[in-house]
């Protein structure tokens, strides 16, 4: 085996998609999009993917750039709006009225379930307290039902988050299996024969 082959084996191959994803998460967690945070996030992503690379796993989805942009922009907007609403609520000393809702996701992939749960928990005012892998169900605590727009809206918000994730990364077959017309935009709509699940509060 040649020396270049040895070097390639010694240093794991880094996925550009993983670098971009980790960098974006770093910037969003800091809450300030600037050059310094972006460079720092990229550095951390390089270290993480080099020192502790994830095991190789097959990706049977499809990367849609516009879907990813839409997902990132809407996620950043949701974080900003939720943070502002909760800050105003705290300043007004209004007592929150929380609830736990059950949301049956439409996708059938552990990866998308995990991503939906993670991004939902990163938005202030909502946190996933339990996830059932086999049924694709999330139990989510809502900090204040009124701020969330009511139980029905809170339920729709989670499903819309999942849809944006699927339209950014899922394959055509995965979208159809989840009941969505393939495409990167939610305007593509849903398959007519699929019915939406209902939420429950407890």
TrEMBL record:
<keyword id="KW-1133">Transmembrane helix</keyword>
<keyword id="KW-1003">Cell membrane</keyword>
<dbReference type="GO" id="GO:0008324">
    <property type="term" value="F:monoatomic cation transmembrane transporter activity"/>
</dbReference>
<keyword id="KW-0472">Membrane</keyword>
<keyword id="KW-0812">Transmembrane</keyword>
<dbReference type="Pfam" id="PF01899">
    <property type="entry name" value="MNHE"/>
</dbReference>
<feature type="transmembrane region" description="Helical">
    <location>
        <begin position="39"/>
        <end position="59"/>
    </location>
</feature>
<feature type="transmembrane region" description="Helical">
    <location>
        <begin position="16"/>
        <end position="33"/>
    </location>
</feature>
<feature type="region of interest" description="Disordered">
    <location>
        <begin position="180"/>
        <end position="202"/>
    </location>
</feature>
<protein>
    <submittedName>
        <fullName>Na+/H+ antiporter subunit E</fullName>
    </submittedName>
</protein>
<comment type="similarity">
    <text>Belongs to the CPA3 antiporters (TC 2.A.63) subunit E family.</text>
</comment>
<dbReference type="GO" id="GO:0005886">
    <property type="term" value="C:plasma membrane"/>
</dbReference>
<dbReference type="InterPro" id="IPR002758">
    <property type="entry name" value="Cation_antiport_E"/>
</dbReference>
């Amino acid at each position: 085996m040649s020396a270049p082959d040895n070097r390639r084996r010694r240093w794991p191959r880094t996925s550009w998609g993983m670098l971009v994803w980790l960098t974006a998460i770093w910037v969003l967690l800091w809450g300030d999009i600037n050059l310094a945070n972006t460079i720092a996030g990229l550095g951390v992503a390089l270290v993480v993917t080099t020192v502790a690379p994830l095991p190789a796993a097959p990706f049977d989805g499809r990367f849609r750039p516009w879907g990813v942009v839409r997902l990132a922009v809407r996620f950043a907007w949701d974080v900003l709006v939720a943070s502002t609403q909760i800050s105003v609520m705290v300043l007004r000393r209004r007592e929150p009225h929380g609830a736990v809702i059950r949301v049956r996701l439409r996708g059938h992939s552990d990866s998308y379930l995990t991503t939906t749960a993670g991004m939902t928990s990163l938005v202030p005012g909502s946190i996933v307290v339990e996830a059932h892998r086999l049924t694709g169900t999330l139990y989510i605590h809502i900090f204040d039902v009124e701020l969330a727009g009511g139980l029905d809206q809170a339920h729709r918000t989670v499903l819309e988050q999942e849809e944006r994730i699927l339209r950014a990364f899922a394959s055509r077959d995965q979208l159809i299996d989840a009941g969505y017309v393939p495409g990167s935009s939610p305007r593509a709509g849903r398959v007519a024969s699929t019915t939406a699940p209902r939420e429950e509060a407890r």
